[in-house]
Write a structure and sequence with these properties.
The protein is an alpha+beta fold. The protein folds into three domains: 7-120, Jelly Rolls; 160-303, no CATH class; 317-460, Heat Shock Protein 90, CATH 3.30.565. It has helices spanning 22-28, 85-90, 111-120, 122-190, 197-213, 219-235, 241-250, 255-266, 273-311, 323-333, 358-376, 429-439; strands at residues 7-8, 33-37, 42-44, 52-58, 61-67, 70-77, 82-83, 97-100, 104-110, 318-321, 341-347, 354-357, 380-389, 392-399, 443-449, 452-460. Strands 1-15-16-14-13-11 form a six-stranded mixed sheet, with helices on one face. It has a four-stranded antiparallel sheet with strand order 2-9-4-7. The two termini are 26 Å apart.
Length: 474
């Protein structure tokens, strides 16, 4: 326990129905040899030719896999659990390593003796083969998922590059369209004989005024302004008053300014005002549409930028990493899922950068924030914090959803465990997050108090020595 919260590290265990009972373990003793291990001793590693089934009698045996230079913990076996069976049956080297994490007793049953067990003790063989079948299914499922993610990553990288160029071109075109529209409208105004020279100058000046000032009203005030403008226009015989009023309100114009324009265009009775507002409304609408296209395309460019930074395309795996930048990019990518939720950011001002694989950490932030969004289900509050604590950077993802049920709290980081409906979740997200954090020399904890779920990630600022290695969280 750390700070009263359960620390989730590399752990897990087989389901009870795939674990040998105490009596079954005792019955196997005549078939094998007892081994005694101290904490830190290896039972076997990826260089070993495994020709035996190993049954844990006492203590704990951690199974891990070497990925590059990083050791990735997978599962911890306790009394009644077994390992090494597949390699023993096939006579091949193991792809994993098994290490005692506490003083342990292990029963070694060689392949010949195990074949006798299969004949003489079929109830034990049933437990073994059902467990082996489950592990093979999970391994195949994980490989398929990894292949899909790899293919999706390549597709995303290509799509990001392909989208960036036309998005940038469209943005430039929208800016040019704004200028060309304004130029054409001003040119038409110069030749419009409905207005005097003074009237044309007044309309051109008003157009420049609203363009330079920009809208400053909040939605409620703008609605009130639209109603007032529409009433004012209707009193002066404008048939399309309710179509024109929103355009004028968006330009921050009010009835006083229109009254002044009426005088400049032809006297207090409003002569010439209809033509002037028709020209001004058309100009504002056309330039506004061009600006809207530019903003929309700009949003596409922003998403592409965030995606490229999120995946760290074309960058070294490990480098100085700004945790806040990764969190912000993740929030941008998940913006569609966060609609309706209130996201509160609390970032320490002088937060140091850490030595890490930023792309992998973004997988952690994605899984935690995505789960928080699912937990609040729309309206709700999600708090994202990042601060320094000694030689570590701490990130907290907090949501005010219903919380984690007590009976499943010890299983949420197990591979393939999910509470979501079939097809909605793989059960790999939190397992991947745990592996990545542990691989970076950090730890992940959760605090499931009623009405609030807090996941906390602690990462060393200096990071691990990853020379020659790579952690991909798989």
């Amino acid at each position: 326990m750390t700070g009263g919260r359960p620390v989730i590290r590399a752990q897990g265990s087989a389901p009870p129905y795939e674990r040998l009972t105490g009596e079954q373990v005792e019955s196997l003793i005549p078939y094998g040899t007892e081994l005694r291990l101290e904490a830190g001793d290896y039972l076997f590693d990826e260089k070993s030719l495994v020709d035996s089934l190993y049954v844990v009698m006492e203590g704990e045996i951690r199974i891990s896999r070497l990925v590059g230079a990083e050791e990735t913990p997978l599962i911890t076996h306790g009394p009644g659990d077994f390992t090494g069976g597949l390699a023993a049956l096939t006579g091949k080297r193991s792809i994993h390593r098994a290490q005692a994490t506490a003083p342990s007793r292990v029963l070694q049953v060689d392949s010949d003796a195990f074949r006798r067990v299969a004949v003489e003790r079929p109830e034990i063989a049933d437990v073994f083969f059902s467990g082996l079948a489950r592990r093979i299914r999970e391994t195949q499922r994980a490989f398929r998922q990894q292949e899909k993610l790899a293919a999706l990553g390549k597709l995303s990288a290509g799509l990001a590059h392909e989208l960036n160029n036309p998005a940038a071109a469209a943005r430039r075109t929208a800016e040019e369209l704004h200028g060309a529209t304004l130029k054409a409208q001003l040119l038409a105004l110069e030749h419009d004989e409905r207005f005097s020279a003074e009237g044309r100058a007044a309309l051109a000046a008003l157009q420049r005024e609203v363009t330079e000032s920009g809208a400053s009203l909040d939605p409620l005030a703008r609605s009130d302004r639209e109603e007032a403008l529409a009433d004012w226009l209707e009193e002066r015989g404008f048939e399309d008053a309710w179509d024109l009023a929103p355009i004028l309100a968006a330009a921050d114009l009010d009835t006083a300014r229109l009254q002044s324009l009426a005088g400049e265009l032809g006297g207090a009775d409003g002569a010439g005002l209809a033509g002037g507002l028709e020209w001004l409304g058309a100009t504002l609408e056309l330039t506004g549409l061009a600006d809207e296209v530019g903003l929309s395309v700009g949003r596409i460019s922003e998403l592409v930028r965030a995606m490229k930074e999120y995946t760290y395309m074309d960058r070294a795996a490990y480098a100085e990493t700004d945790v806040r930048e990764g969190l912000e990019n993740t929030l941008t990518i998940l913006g569609h899922k966060l609609k309706g939720a209130t996201v509160q950011r609390e970032y320490e001002v002088d937060l140091p950068k850490i030595w890490a694989n930023a792309g992998e950490l973004n997988q952690v932030w994605t899984n935690l924030i995505d789960n928080a969004a699912d937990a609040v289900g729309g309206p709700g509050r999600i708090r994202v914090r990042a601060l320094k604590d000694g030689d570590r950077v701490v990130v907290e993802i907090v949501d005010d959803g219903p919380g984690i049920q007590r009976e499943i709290r010890n299983r949420i980081f197990e591979p393939f465990f999910t509470t979501k409906e079939i097809g909605e979740g793989t059960g790999l997200g939190l397992d991947i997050a745990r592996r990545i954090v542990v691989g970076h020399g950090g730890e992940i904890t959760f605090d499931p108090v009623p009405g609030e779920t807090r996941f906390t990630v602690r990462l060393p600022i200096k990071g691990r020595n990853t020379e020659g290695g790579r952690l991909d969280g798989s």
